[in-house]
Amino acid sequence: MINCSDNGSAAPSYIREELMTPVTHRADVLVAGGGVAGIAAALAAARHGADVLLIEREFELGGLATLGLITYYLPLCDGCGHQVIYGIGEELLKTSIKFGAEKDYPSAWLDGGSPEEKTKQRFKAGYNGPLFMMETEFLLLKAGVRILYGTQICAAETRENRITHVICENKSGRFAVSVGRVIDATGDADVAAAAGAETALFSQGNILAGWYYYVAGGVRKLKVLGPSDIPDEEKAAGAKTKKPLVDRRFSGLDGDELSDMVMLSHRATYDDWKKNHDADPSYLPDAIPTIPQIRMTRRIIGTATPHSADDRVRVPDCIGVTGHWRKRGPVYELPFGALRSVNICNLLAAGRDISVTDAMWDNTRVIPTCAVTGEAAGTAAAMFNDFLTLSNSDIDRLRSELRRGGVRTSIEELAL
Hints:
Order of helices and strands: EEEHEEHHHEHEEEEHEEEHHEEEEEHHH
Strand content: 15-25%
Largest sheet: 7 strands, mixed
Helix content: 25-40%
Structural class: alpha/beta
Oligomer: single chain
Mean pLDDT: 95
């Protein structure tokens, strides 16, 4: 039933909806978002025996890593010849280039290169987005993950600091999912915000990007149109920046703003194509992103908030290690506290949603680190029901289980 209230005016100022939403799905673990973090989380949870439902707004997996055309699997190493990311993070890199790399095949790392060669060449690769999205879908189905495509998460029902249901809409209409645990891998902490979890915004906003694929002279290439922005704190420290495509910032959390952003991206892409086409008639656009190329928007506030200055800082609840994609040398231990909400007991974050400072956010948002936090979140969600009451021995069990999957859960486990 829909009731209109006009407050005495001719046109209603709001519509009050009275909804009876059917509970049509149930899951031990609901993973919200099918980007790399969500893929890793769903894989880990299912492989540890949980009944997993993955909900994805689009009709393909991968998020920015596929639909956003950010088709670069950034390094699994510290830039000094040492691998730091293993487990599902390494598995997905190898999956992405199963049929060959589009660019930067990491021969030193995959073909037995010397320590000197590994130091010279970072463990990264460019890959084909459509192949990656299909291969990851096959991996999830093989693991027993149920996938709902074209499904938007609208709300969450929370009782006594616990999410009981997640409300969704798709072509079937509005429905609810009864959940045991939830992993928010939406990239925007959408479920966390809907559930009343404490969240924080990326303070400086996002700049416009317009990465696209083109064909020229019979060769298909990725055009990186628009720089990847640097956190303000890093700029203050002297990091070099490039001029953005437009003098406007985007929060990534407003529908009108996102529509403007996409149209500005289309214009920038078109203008860049036209300039190159005038010089070379064979230059034609081949693929443009089907989602906004937004990097950082909203995250949870966790029980830990690591900083980019925490290079080689030891944390007792480390669930994985990462390097720095922009710099050679730094190595970070990632705490479980960055994945768990301070006030919702059955909610974990993965990927871009985890609790970090703005400067660290730029590092943890990239593909390999998203896979690390996704694997940890999925494993924990399969093992525990309440993440705020975990004891030290529970955390030790989680770390032990991650190590069984090949993850390095401390700097000491690396050959640095």
